[in-house]
Amino acid sequence: ELNIGGGYGIAYTRDEVAISPELVIPAVAKIIKSECQRLEISIPKISIEPGRAIVGPTTTTIYEVGTSKDVTLEDGSIRRYISVDGGMSDNIRPALYGATYSAYLANRTSTANIVKTRVVGKHCESGDVLISNIDLPDDIKSGDLLATPATGAYGRSMASNYNHIPRPAVVSVQKGSAKLILRRENEQDLLNLDVDQAPRQLS
Questions:
Q1: Among 50, 51, 82, 55, CA closest to 69
Q2: pLDDT beneath 50: ranges in the chain
Q3: Which of 64, 116, 167, 196 has the smallest set of CB atoms within 10 Å of its CB?
Q4: Annotated catalytic residue within 41, 73, 124, 195
């Protein structure tokens, strides 16, 4: 058996196109067949690990907008900063290695003009940037919801309690019905590992 691993990309942003299995698998199989013939060995059973391609597109993270402010850049243009109620604790990928995502206004429609925007988290870190540059409606305000698609792979699995931020809930949505499958963490969850133990003498 030959396991050719994973890493099959998905579309994280509006400008990206997901890898098509119908195109990739035959191309990979052709290369393996050619190499087996060259080495004069039999063609093995081929397996892959398409976890990200399966799980990634299934999940969308919903953020609530907190505050926003406009910043004048060196070229005189304006960039709007929008803070949300999450960030690097629920999606470390942008801060860790520059992963890119898109976002959409989720709770209503808008016909407002678009504005150059940066979506940032709540963790008091300069690197807590979820989306560095995206065009969003000019009328987004506190309480609005932003949806970030394609967070199913390496979102929840890499989430943490950075700065003691509780992890968000996970809700399954199917055929018009919603079901809570992981509840939101709370303060007590953060304290559950605390131990009230009497001190002992060190030898």
A1: 82
A2: none
A3: 196
A4: 124
